[in-house]
Amino acid sequence: MSPRTTLAVAGRVLTQLRRDRRTLAMLLVLPCLLITLLWWMFDGTATGPGGGVFDRVGPALLAMFPFIVMFLVTSVTTLRERSSGTLERLLAMPMGKLDFLGGYALAFGAVAAVQSVLAVGLAVGLLDLDVRGPVWLLTVVAVADAVLGTALGLFVSAFAQTEFQAVQFMPLLVIPQILLCGLFVARGALPGLLAGISDFLPLSYAVDAMQTLTRTPATGDVWRDLAVVAGYAVALLGLGAATLRRRTP
Questions:
Q1: With bands split at pLDDT 50, 70 and 90, how would you rate the model's confidence at 103?
Q2: Which domain holds residue 106?
Q3: What is the model's pTM?
Q4: Do 138 and 125 contact (CB within 8 A), yes or no?
Q5: DSSP line for 71-131
Q6: Residue 162 domain-assigned?
Q7: Number of domains in the chain
Q8: 13-70 confidence digits (pLDDT tens)
Q9: Per-residue pLDDT reduced to its tens digit, 175-232
Q10: Residue 46 falls inside a structural domain
Q11: By the 8 A CB rule, do 248 and 165 touch?
Q12: What are the residues facing 48 on neighbouring strands?
């Protein structure tokens, strides 16, 4: 893996994103719009010991929306590169699969950082999400979760032949994580089998980290959860490099 080649791939992807205003708007604006919509829905709801509804679901939303958006955009974009023959031409150059995937991860990671700063700034600064821990660490968790979505999108793109098939992986790999991450039912209250499955899903740890930061200033558990999310992202990038094909059959 060559740092120079990886940076060149990342620069190429960022240039493409800058020219594709619709995709860029989806990456940067859509999570903020969705969070605002849900805040508006829950505005005025009764508050209890744990605060209003938005204070309870907001942390999970900050983990989920970047993850979902980055998964969709990355999986479709990578598949488009392969089906158009661009990936085959790139890999014919002195470039390895890890250079390609690393460049994509670096480029989308930079976009994810901007996306997370906007989403966290909106939720905490304008929508008054109650946060007890460091806001910067909340942003770091959001970035890591968005990078996780990027890595998962890069991985599943190897198994799809069309953009529609890439999107079809969402009910299989993304929606179960949303259902079991603790948003609807606390993970500790899940039936034994479902709780065990939840323990193996990376989104669960991202949501746990977000919820911890809104309940307490202590950060020990947050760093552990963050390490798990980062580990999953690295593992998925490695699997993506092992399964990446030059062209769609």
A1: confident
A2: 3-41+51-243
A3: 0.86
A4: no
A5: HHHHHHHHHHHHHTTHHHHHHTSS--HHHHHHHHHHHHHHHHHHHHHHHHIIIIIIS----
A6: yes
A7: 1
A8: 888 888 888 888 888 888 889 889 988 888 766 555 555 778 888 888 888 888 988 8
A9: 999 999 888 888 888 898 999 999 999 999 999 999 888 888 878 889 999 999 999 9
A10: no
A11: no
A12: 51
| Average predicted confidence (pLDDT) for the chain | 83
In whole angstroms, what is the distance from residue 14 CA to residue 85 CA? 19
DSSP assignment of 23-64: HHHHHHTHHHHHHHHHHHHHTTPPPBTTB-HHHHHHHHHHHH
At residue 23, what is the residue type? T
Strand partners, 82: none
Q: Which two tokens stand for residue 33?
A: 């719009």
Residue 154 within any structural domain of the chain = yes
Q: Which residues of 132-142 are buried (b: 16+ CB within 10 A; e: fewer)?
A: ebeeebbbbbb
Q: Say which residues have a Cβ less than 8 Å from residue 25's Cβ, sequence separation at least 6.
A: none
Tokens coding 71: 């998964």
Q: Which amino acid, residue 196?
A: G
Q: Which amino acid is at 55?
A: D
What amino acid is encoded at 222 in this protein?
A: V
**Is residue 141 within 8 Å of 222, Cβ to Cβ?**
yes
Residue 61, number of CB atoms within 10 A of its CB: 21
Residue 248 falls inside a structural domain: no
- 183 CB neighbour count, 10 Å cutoff: 21
**Amino acid sitting at position 205:** Y
